[in-house]
Amino acid sequence: MAPHPRILLVDDDEAILDSLRRALELEGYLVTTAVDGAGALRSVAQGEPDAVVLDIGLPDLNGRVIAARMRAGGLSTPILVLSALDEVDDRIAGLEAGADDYLIKPFAMAELVARLRALLRRAVAQAQAGGAALQPPVRLGLLLVDVDGAAASWDGRDLGLTGRELALLDALARNAEVVLSRDRLLEMVWGYDFAPDGRALDVFMTYLRRKLEAAGAPRMVETVRGVGFVLRKP
Amino acid sequence: MIPRSLTARVAVGVLVVVSAVLVGGGLTIVTLTEQRDKRDADAELRGFAGDLTPSLAGALGIAPAPLSSSLASPPPPLGQVVLLNRNGEPLPRPPHPPPPVRTGPPAGVVQALVAAFDQRGQSSSPAGQIVFVRALAVQSGRRLILGAVPPGFPPMSTRPGGRSVQADGKPWRLIVVRNRPGVIVEVGALAQSISSRAADLRQVVIWTGLAGLLVALLGTLITSRLALRPLTLLARKAAAVEGTDDLQVRLRAPGQPREVAVLAEELDRMLSRLDGAVAARAAALLAARRFAADAGHELRTPLQSVRANLDIASSEGANAEQRRLALETAALQSDRLNRLVDGLQTLARGESGLAAPVADVDLGDIADGAVFATRTRHPELTIDSDLPASGPVVQGDADGLWRVVENLLENAARHGRPGGHVRLHVSGNGAGAEIVVEDDGPGIPLAERQRVIRRFARGRDATAAGSGLGLAIVDAEARRHDGALRLSSSELGGLLARVTIRER
User: Fold this and answer.
1) B465 touches chain A (CB under 8 A)
2) ipTM
3) pLDDT digits over B103-123, tens only?
4) Are B56 and B92 in contact (CB under 8 A)?
5) In chain B, which residues have their Cβ closer than 8 Å to the Cβ of A225?
6) Average pLDDT over residues B324-351
7) In order of start, what are the domains of chain B with their CATH numbers?
8) B376 to chain A, closest Cα gap in Å
């Protein structure tokens, strides 16, 4: 990891932007800021940051749209969405559009820093692993998960997964018939060695199941209550 | 274009129908009358021709004319008798008095003919004025003309029957008869009287029709206004609602015609729905006002504490230890503020009365996730979770149901025995699902159970750490899902909270 990862911080409230910037700089990050969606997209076009912290409720563009555009533009670095409690739909839509996790305002700085650190570490580890040796695709019956090709399909039909959904399916598929605990999945997919507040894992799991079923797959991802999740071989 | 007023529409409709009937009827009457008149006229002309035939035959030298003495009368006026040769060319006009034509008929016969013709021709009859008679002897080709044939008149037809022609700017009726072999007689009459009678009749029909239309129109306007009167009254009554804002008014009244009664009943149903909605909105507004007032009151306390501690931290007199303590306290109070605001927002959504979005939600999966989150927050707690292997699936809002389970568990964690035991049980049946959370804490006395569900109400011995909103949120979300929250005593010793979600 670069000694000083670059973070793009997007929020329309100057006061929040300023305090978050100072707090992140204290942690050793190089912070670029933008106060609206257009500025955020411009900033990404000028140089890819190592991670994006994105407020979902911006005046010009919805955070969901910005996340989708960043992903469409080829940005693969982690996107962490900030939202107010009542912006449930936007928040979830943000995850669907390609964001990796969310935090509900107000949050403790320690929480933000812990997640950023984990997501960055994970991104770097993946980049290095990708550079060293390609992960062979996993095939289970009609299911094909190709994490390096950034695609998964059922019976030849692309599932249209976002990066984090793909990583989740990859982790489950590589451990088919093995029950993975929530802690383990958080570690494998997000790099979290702590259990974050909120229900991002459940939301991602819901989307993953929905997309699999939409492609015609049977219900493969099971919840083993009290333990975790398992992918059953089809 | 369709007129706007119902009365006008009915009137236009009646006008169209009545006009069609009148035009059709009038045309039929006029046509039938005209045909009958023509038939009568033809019969008369034919009779006249028949009467004259013997004399004409005589005059043309076909047979001796049976002359009666009465026909022997004064000589004909000049120019009324023209004798034609075989080619139809006029023979030279005889001088006055006409000398007997060598080959012609005797003068007496001609005179008698002319007299008969004059007598008959001048009388007016349904057939109109008889103007001329043309006769032709088939064998000899001799022709005879009585009266004046207008110049340019079509030549004589030899085919028996009637025909109408237009000549000299007037309508003519011509009848050809062959009553007697060897002689063809054609009678020409001005048909003006028939056509003028038809025109008269047409006038009468038109004017009568117009008058009938006018009467029908007026009648329709009056009757439709009368028929629509209950509707007008209904509209007036409905308009009064706007003026008074009185939604209790009912528009159905005895004596209303069936169609209007149906409308009135429908409007009454709408009014009562509106009435209900207005009442509900008023109640919601009142609740929102109380909510805002309560929230303001509750937020003020921690805000005051944050402010005071920040003042201490920034005062010059404070030492390092005092500053650190003040900042820590401010941070703690700000956490409390966070929880309060979180809770208020959740509660506001739950209490807004908006129906939860409908989607299939696996309540067991939701509970499983909430247990994991609570265990993370409260690792010291023992949580027994008793969930079916899959399901129950209910219809509702995943986020709201998550808050129900999470808040029940959080409540048990905070108000149960520290490091104690919490039991979660989720089950479903055909009619819905049930979430039960029990703890082994002190519980809540029966008398206080209803009170603690209200927002900002805390148990008497509860710590300040709680927001006082947990159970209120659960209650609001449960009601949003057509369910309910009930509190009772657990066999573990503490509180048992049961939320039922009714299947929709």
Assistant:
1) no
2) 0.70
3) 455 667 777 777 777 776 655
4) no
5) 364-365, 368, 385, 387, 389
6) 78
7) 6-200 (no CATH), 247-354 (no CATH), 355-502 (3.30.565.10)
8) 6
